[in-house]
Design a protein that fits this description.
6-stranded antiparallel beta sheet, 51% helix, binds adenosine-5'-diphosphate, single chain, rod-shaped, 5-stranded mixed beta sheet, alpha+beta, 449 residues
Length: 449
């Protein structure tokens, strides 16, 4: 049940409820309509006959029927008989058995040849004259015909109304839950794209769900501004650190230049220079990350011959490949895509340098375009990454095996965080397949156009 949407659950609930009500009503109508209509018919019959009785009189030994006597009214046929049951006036409905016995003041049901009739007789007595009988006959098929028509109307109208109510209710509920779907979609897109500037885009309304969306938007607003403050702070600090670090580096270079000190002093200066370089790189990385995180930052995407770009990048990479590491390429000619070439070069450099650092005897780089999607693949047969570490290596400053990289001035655990950001800026994604001891394959896929 919980797998169904609330809209569907509500609709299902009241549709079933309406169905039950309709069935109950139909059963009720079927059950009582006959009784009610019959008792109505009975009333009608007795009223008409009781009235007609007043319109019969004796005049000079002759039975006289007044003009106001209703011979046929509302389906009731009225007849007058003499005291010895001889017919005087009126006409029996067709099929009614003439020999039907007379009973004074009692309504009975008589059936003949499959037809049902209601019969009501009244004996009218006069002071000096012999009595007469007034008989009323009402064929019941007319009555049950009305009941049948009523039932037929109900059988069509009630389910139709129930379907109309269910359909209308479904649409209203669906509409009412639209903002909830919008909220879900917005949260999803924020989770996927990390774009906190997005808001639940909704028309004005006063109901609870609109209030929820408004609260959600103001929460996003606060989150966005606190992230922005943090990002701005890191960016400002990095800027501020750039000058002193450059000065330290320049001073080290100068001191290690001509007339350099000897022995321990020289070693100290070299350590300072190495660390200053590391700080310099760290600041550059931080500035890159904070710049790309800016809400209005856009990659400068332009049509690029990726095959050529990658080949020239690989020439440079080959020059920096450690001894004994073979760089193998599979780059088909003429693959074009819309990329920011500086950022794309950064991805290639980070992935290939990692493959050199953590790799084994060979590194494979390939490029492929298929179904409007480009895939850049960098794989090595090196140390690999454990399943536990695989989701963590994208975090800033995370290093899966810091002991191995401790001596590396280059290693800071920021490279893959930058790669991931660049992949996102290209509306693409970066995936990893790796097993410890067997090597790793990083695949950057992004749309060609
Ligand atoms: P680092 O500067 O440490 O290389 P990265 O963000 O580039 O930082 O990588 C994060 C971590 O992911 C690395 O410290 C390393 O443990 C792991 N890693 C990255 N690439 C590979 C690879 N090709 N093989 C094995 N481990 C890797």
């Amino acid at each position: 049940m919980n797998r169904m949407s609330i809209t569907l659950r509500i609709t299902l609930w009241y549709s079933l409820f309406m169905l039950a009500v309709v069935l109950l009503m139909l059963a009720f109508m079927l059950g009582i309509s006959d009784t009610i209509i019959q008792s109505n018919a009975q009333n009608q019959l007795t009223t008409i006959i009781d009235y007609n009785v007043e319109e019969v009189d004796h005049d000079d030994g002759e039975v006289e029927v007044d003009d106001d006597f209703d011979f046929l009214k509302n389906g009731v046929s009225s007849l007058v008989y003499s005291s010895d049951f001889a017919w005087i006036a009126g006409q029996l409905p067709q099929g009614f058995p003439e020999e039907t016995e007379f009973v004074d003041g009692e309504t009975r049901q008589v059936s003949s040849a499959g037809e049902q009739y209601l019969v009501y007789d009244r004996k009218v007595t006069f002071k000096k004259h012999p009595e007469v009988w007034v008989r009323g006959v009402l064929p019941l098929d007319a009555v049950s015909g009305i009941a049948g028509t009523l039932l037929q109307i109900a059988m069509i109208a009630l389910p139709f109304l129930a379907i109309l109510a269910a359909g209308g209710g479904y649409l209203i509920t669906k509409r009412a839950f639209r903002p909830v779907r919008l909220i879900t979609r917005t949260v999803d897109s924020i989770t996927e794209g990390k774009d906190l500037s997005r808001r639940v885009d909704m028309d004005s309304g006063r109901d609870e769900i609109h209030a929820l969306a408004a609260t959600f938007n103001s929460m996003l607003q606060r989150l966005e501004s606190s992230f922005e403050t943090e990002r701005q702070f890191v960016s400002d600090v990095s800027h501020e650190l750039r000058t002193p670090v450059s000065v330290i580096l320049a001073q080290c270079e100068y001191s290690l230049g001509q007339g350099a000190p000897e022995g321990e002093a020289q070693e100290s200066l070299q350590v300072i220079e190495r660390q200053a370089r590391r700080m310099h790189r760290l600041i550059a990385h931080l500035l890159t990350i904070t710049r790309m995180e800016q809400a209005n930052f856009q990659a400068a995407l332009s049509e690029t011959n990726l095959s050529e770009l990658l080949e020239s990048l690989m020439e440079e990479a080959n020059a920096t490949a450690p001894d004994g590491v073979l760089l193998r390429l599979d780059i088909p000619q003429g693959i074009h895509a819309r990329v920011d070439s500086a950022l794309f070069a950064r991805v290639v450099e980070n992935l290939v340098q990692n493959a050199f650092k953590y790799g084994g005897s060979h590194v494979d780089v390939s490029l492929k375009a298929e179904n409007e999607t480009v895939a850049l693949r960098v794989s090595d047969n090196g140390i690999g990454i454990s399943t536990e570490d695989q989701p963590k290596i994208w975090r800033r400053f995370y290093q899966a095996n810091p002991s191995r990289t401790a001596g590396e001035a280059e290693s800071m655990g920021l490279g893959l965080a930058i790669v991931k950001q660049i992949a996102h800026l290209h509306h693409g994604e970066i995936t990893l397949r790796s097993a410890p001891g067997e090597g790793s394959t990083f695949i950057f896929t992004f749309p060609q156009g």
